[in-house]
Every structure is written in C-alpha cells, then in structure tokens.
Design goal:
The complex is a heterodimer of chains A (189) and B (508). Chain A is mostly beta strands and 189 residues long. Chain A is 0% helix and 56% strand. Chain A is globular. Chain B is an alpha+beta fold and 508 residues long. Chain B has helices at 6-23, 165-179, 183-187, 223-226, 268-274, 292-305, 331-343, 495-498; strands spanning 36-41, 50-55, 59-62, 67-70, 82-86, 92-94, 112-116, 125-129, 145-148, 159-162, 190-191, 194-198, 202-206, 214-218, 247-248, 280-282, 285-287, 321-322, 328-329, 361-363, 376-379, 384-386, 389-393, 404-406, 411-419, 426-436, 442-452, 455-457, 462-466, 479-485. In chain B, a hairpin with a 2-residue loop joins strand 16 and strand 17 (285-287). In chain B, helix 5 crosses helix 6 (292-305). The radius of gyration of chain B is 24 Å and the shape is elongated. Classes of the chains: A mainly beta (189), B alpha+beta (508). The interface between A and B is medium-sized, with 28 and 35 residues.
Chain lengths: 189, 508
C-alpha cells in the first residue's frame, strides 16, 4: 500500500514549502505515488534512448479506467548512475516540486520538475552540489526555498560547488548562488 | 594528530586487547613485520652504503578528521634491529654485533621495504627493493635483496641474498601459472617431432583457487592417473575441457629423441618448485609435510634460491600467516605477491609497488546501461567527469558480487558507508574500504562493495568484496577504484599515473 507522509520536514524554516516523504511502492523499483492513480517512475527505458538522449528518465503514469498509461517521459539523465528524488509540497504556485539528484559516485547537481494538475514539467537543471567526503554530494538538503509571488527563490544554506562533476567546478559561497523557479523553468539569477 | 584523554586511551587499549584476544591463539609475530624501517649510511667507513633495519612500531588509526597514534609494545618484535653491511660484490652481510640505532636517513622512494615470506617458510622476510634506483647512494648494478627472517624469536637474521636471474625466472613462471589458466598451452615448449606434446612439464593442480590447495606432478608421466581430476596436457594441450585444473611447465629437460620426454633428468628448479606445493608426487613417492622427500625438496629449492628453506610445503586449508597485529594474511595472495614481486612481470614486477585491486581486471566500456568506466571527462558526452575507474574482470568471466578485492599496498583500512540523507539507503560510493598508506598522503577508495574490511592490511590481502551498493542501477557490477590525496582532496588522480599496475585495458 502506498504511503504519502506530508510535512515530515520543513525546509529552511519556510512553512509554505514542505518536504514530502513518498515511499517507494515496490521494492527494487523507483516508483512513487504522487496521488491516487498517478505514479512517478524513475527508470531506464532503452527503447527511448538515442545517441544523445539516453539514460534514466522520469516517467509519469496516470491511471485511466484502471489501466496505467505513460503520459510523460523526461529527457534522459545520460550517464547518471542514479536519480534520487526529493519531493516538496505546496511550494509557491506548484502542487509538488521534485528535485532529482543526478550523478555517479558524486553529485553532478539536480534536476527540477514540477507536478501540477496530474502533469509533469521539466523545469531545468541546477548544476550545484556541496563539498563532501570524499567528493561532491547532493545540495538538495541545503536548499532554501522562499515563494516570491509567481516564482520561488532558491538559495543554499552552505557553500556550494557549481558545475559539480564538470570541467570547471567552482567553489562558491552560499550567498553568491541564487536561482529562481518559475512556472516553466528554473533560472540562475 | 590529537592527544587522547585518559578515557579514550583506555578505551582504545581495551579494543586493542579484544582484537588480540581473538587472534592470539593463532600464533602471531613470525619474522619481520611492517614496522621495520630501512635507514642507510656507511657504518664501517669503507665507502659502501650500509643499511640499518630498525623496528619503529606505531599504529595509526585514521579517522575522518584526525589521526590517533598508538605505540606497539616492544615485546611484539620478533627480529632485533639489524645492521647490514654492503660487500664489494654487491651483496650484504648481517653484522653480528649488537646494533644500535644510528641517526641515518631513511631509505628514500622509490626504494622501499617489502615484507613478504619469500621462502614460504611461515616467517615474514624483508625485501629491499629498488635500491639500484638510488644513485649515488647505491650503485645502479645493485640488485634487490632479500633478508630472510630467522626462525627463532629474538635472533638476528642470518642470510641476505640478492634476487638473481634464476630466482626471477622461477617466480615469473609461477606468476604466469597462477594468474593465467592458459599459461601452459601458451608457453610450454613443444616437441618438434610430435606436435601437441611438450618437451617437459611440471603439472600443478589448483583446485580451488583461491585459496589454493595445490598438488603437483613432477616429471612423472603417469601422474594424471594418480589424480583422477588431473587435466592431462597431452590429451588436452589447449586446456579446453571443462576440468578446472591448471598445468604448467618449468625448466629444461633433455628430449632423448623419442616421442616422450626423458624424465630421468630432473630439472632442479622444477624440483624446487615442487617444494612450494602440497601433496607432491615425485615418482611414486607421496610427499607429506615432514617427510623425507619433502626434506630433499627443501634442500633442492634452497639450492635454487640460494637460501635455506624451512618447512616449505603448505598444508592447505585456511590462511596461516598472522601478522603482529593479529590480522590474517591471505596465503594465496601472499603467494601471488611473492611471485609478482620477483617476476619482473611486463608492466609490473620490480618497478611496481602496487598490487592489482581486482584479479583479471578490465575497465568497463560504455555498453547499454553501463557508463564509460575510464578516468576523466568520459560521462555525458565529455561534459561530466569520472574520477576513478570502474573495473570489471575478464570479459569471459564478468565480476560478480562477492568477488574479493585486494589491498594495493600495506596500510590501514577503514570502512565507510555513504547513506542517503533520510538514512533509508546507501547512495554515492555505497560501502567503501578506504586504504590509507603509512607515510603517504595517498589513499585508495574501493567503492560499491558488498562488504568492506577494516584494520591493518598487508598488500594483496583481501580489502573487501565487490558489491552493488550506492549509486548503481542497471550498470554491470564493478569495482569503482579511486586514488585520492589527503593533502588535496580536490586533486583528481588518474590511477594510471600512479603505477603501470593501474593501467588496465578497456574491455573489448
């Protein structure tokens, strides 16, 4: 049976944006129930792969007359070894924000998805991680979200690494890094 | 380094005592150990550099943020500090006097001290390696030296021998045999008049290995009937059948012009090889530990290596070496080290201080769900980096969960687990062994393991087991191996730049 535990944690003292703890529905697969009849799945479907768009994806399945149909799949995460989601509920105008950490042994940053009205939208990627032992780790636990009108300001509570895992990773103080989550995209400010 | 308060100190000693309680019944402290340090200077003012082997015991327990140093009781030392004086002919003699520590510098890299049981007598010896690279301290002609441990506690070593060409070849053969199941088929000299047959052979059985329980047939053409499971190289010259046995040839045998070798002429080196192995059949004689034939073989092997050989026949079964700290030394891998060290393997051998962390390793290539396992900017079309290597094993025998991985060097191993923020699962590197090297800022990460190992490790001993923990989904099972530096955590170190041992081929 599926569980949806809300308000398990409040991020950075911002009551409006609440971390949701969604339990995976089936051992061995990464499937989450966003609401009744809506499943979010993280997996690789080789039939969708092309030379430049491949790897694990976020897939959305919606039940129609008891049968789940795939209604959305994201761009592939290429060589990322994992997609690790964090769910944020009731944040700004979005029903649910989904931060998905990507990387291998170390984080390369995270992708941002918005789930609204049984639809999923890829808002973009934030190439930010934080220093870890022995290498960059997910910055998602250090995200601070503040709804600001139609958008959400995204900052970090600790110093970060930009372009983590890339050619020119940069260590930056927390206050130098700011993103804005809008209705259809996430952008650096 | 931080200072221990009384409670911490007492706690650590209690933990230490607990470890020793577990291992002490197995008998420890045979011969040299990893605490011996080589210093150099001219003790007798003859213009030749001498070496002083000094026991400098300390154990570093390395935590993530600090080091704790614990002294080892001097009662744990087996071999006294020893002065080795260099002779004019490129050898060393053990100074019989009571050596006292001289304020000499320690032997600099790339020379180093290797603790290996070279003569497989159960007492750890010391190899003085890479001396010839230290011009002008030592002449370039100086060979590596083996200082054989005494077999009586507290005595000074009696013999120092150079590793000569015969010993090199001997161990190179052993290495080939142990590491390559096709070695016999690929290397055995054929009888020209009788293709498919061999001039000579020395048959070994390794079943199972590791750990091995070896048997051997020495120049005895009916030995295949003596052991029902022996794979006959005459009948199966390419070793293509399903039997797991491995055959090997060694030495020079006179072919008498007939279709069969003349086994009446024994190659002494082959005989010597037999002394390393268990359940030896020589002619019709079964060789058992302590038996007369074993004694004769020891003498012969001693002649081969130029050293006394004591108790050179393994009795099979579990690992039998235990170091001063009570840690078992895997016998099979100690044997591999021995042969690797001495063999001068192409791309390895003398110039190589490191041991291969995974047997038969290949770097995974990009294939389906498996990402490019090479080091560097190889991910996401060259936009993301991979700062280690993903090692699978031979394409014919893919690595599986539970496959052992090996310490690349003597060191202190610590287990790490990378867990998700909600603590519900492992992510990132998963279960890791991190191997810290005494006196070096380098350390090594073995990631995605199913089980890690902690404590002092001897090079080539088991450092953990391959697993699928951490960030893995549908990729092929592999060992993620990474070289790091404690002084510069951001440094990306290509393992291949550290040693040719780490220049693995990419799987075809």
């Amino acid at each position: 049976m599926l569980l949806l535990l809300a308000a398990a944690e409040i991020l950075a003292g911002t009551p409006a944006c609440q971390s949701l703890r969604l339990q995976e529905t089936t051992a061995g697969s990464q499937t989450y129930e966003l609401e009744e009849g809506v499943h979010l799945v993280f997996e690789r479907d080789a039939s969708l792969d092309t030379a430049t768009d491949y790897g694990q994806r976020v897939l959305l399945y919606v039940a129609e007359r008891g049968v789940f149909k795939r209604v959305y799949y994201s761009a592939g995460s290429k060589d990322s070894a994992a997609m690790t989601p964090t769910f944020i509920g009731h944040c700004g105008r979005h029903e649910t924000l989904i931060f998905v950490d990507v990387g291998a042994e170390y984080s390369w940053g995270f992708r941002v998805f918005a789930y609204d009205e049984r639809k999923l939208r890829d808002l973009g990627e934030i190439p930010i991680a934080v220093p870890g032992d022995p290498d960059a780790q997910s910055a998602i636990p250090f995200v601070k979200l503040i709804p600001n009108g139609e958008t959400i300001d995204l900052t970090f509570t600790t110093d970060v690494i930009k372009d983590a895992g890339g050619k020119l990773p940069q260590s930056l103080p927390a206050h130098d890094v700011r993103y804005q989550i809008g209705a259809i995209s996430v952008q650096a400010k | 380094m931080r200072t221990l308060n009384g409670l911490q100190h007492r706690g650590l000693w209690l933990a230490w005592a607990a470890v020793m309680t577990v291992f002490a019944p197995l008998a420890y402290g045979d011969g040299f150990d990893g605490y011996f340090v080589a210093h150099y200077g001219d003790a007798n003012s003859d213009g030749l550099t001498d070496i002083y082997l000094r026991w400098k015991p300390e154990v570093s327990i390395i935590s993530t943020d600090d080091d704790l140093i614990i002294p080892v009781p001097s009662s744990r030392r087996d071999v006294p500090d020893t002065l080795l004086t260099q002779t004019a002919n490129g050898g060393f003699l053990v100074d019989p006097g009571s050596a006292s520590f001289r304020q000499w510098p320690t032997l600099p890299a790339p020379a180093f001290v290797a603790v290996v049981d070279f003569n497989l007598d159960g007492f750890m010896d010391i190899g003085l390696r890479g001396l010839s690279s230290l011009l002008p301290i030592f002449p370039t002609s100086l060979r590596d030296q083996i200082v054989y441990a005494p077999q009586v506690r507290g005595q000074r070593p009696g013999v120092v021998k150079a590793i000569d060409a015969a010993a090199l070849k001997f161990f190179k053969e052993l290495y080939g045999w142990v590491t390559n199941a096709q070695y016999f088929a690929q290397n055995a000299p054929r009888i020209p008049s009788n293709p498919g047959r061999y001039e000579s052979y020395l048959g070994y059985i390794l079943e199972p290995y590791p750990p091995y329980s070896a048997a051997v047939c020495v120049f005895y053409d009916t030995c295949e009937y003596r052991f029902g499971n022996i794979d006959d190289p005459y009948a199966d010259p390419n070793n293509t059948d399903t039997k797991p046995n491995v055959w090997h040839w060694w030495g020079i045998t006179i072919v008498n012009g007939t279709s069969r070798p003349d086994y009446s002429v024994f190659d002494e080196r082959a005989m010597g090889a037999a002394a390393l192995l268990n359940n030896v059949v020589l002619g019709n004689e079964q060789i058992v530990p302590g038996g007369e034939v074993e004694g004769r073989l020891k003498v012969i092997l001693g002649g081969v290596l130029g050293v006394p050989v004591y108790g050179g026949i393994f009795t099979g079964g579990t690992p039998e070496y235990v170091d001063h700290d009570g840690f078992l030394i895997d016998r099979y891998n100690a044997f591999l080290v021995l042969s690797t060290e001495l063999a001068g393997i192409p791309g390895g051998g003398f110039s190589l201080p490191y041991f291969n962390p995974l047997a038969n390793a290949y770097i995974n290539k990009r294939d389906g769900c498996t990402a490019d396992g090479r080091f560097g900017m190889v991910r996401n079309g060259g936009t993301k980096g991979h700062w280690g290597v993903d090692l699978g094993s031979s394409p014919e025998t893919p690595v599986v969960v539970g496959t052992p991985v090996y310490a690349v060097w003597d060191g202190t191993a610590a287990q790490f687990k990378q867990v998700s923020k909600d603590k519900t699962k492992l992510d990132g590197y998963g279960v890791q062994t991190r191997l810290f090297i005494p006196g070096s800022s380098r350390y090594f990460i073995y990631a995605h393991l199913s089980a890690a190992v902690t404590g002092r490790l001897t090079r080539a001993s088991i450092a953990g087991y391959v697993g699928r923990t951490g960030n893995l989904t549908c990729e092929k099972t592999h060992l993620h191996f990474e070289v790091k530096d404690n002084l510069n955590w951001n440094q990306r170190i290509d393992p291949a730049s550290e040693s040719s041992v780490f220049r693995w081929p990419v799987e075809p």
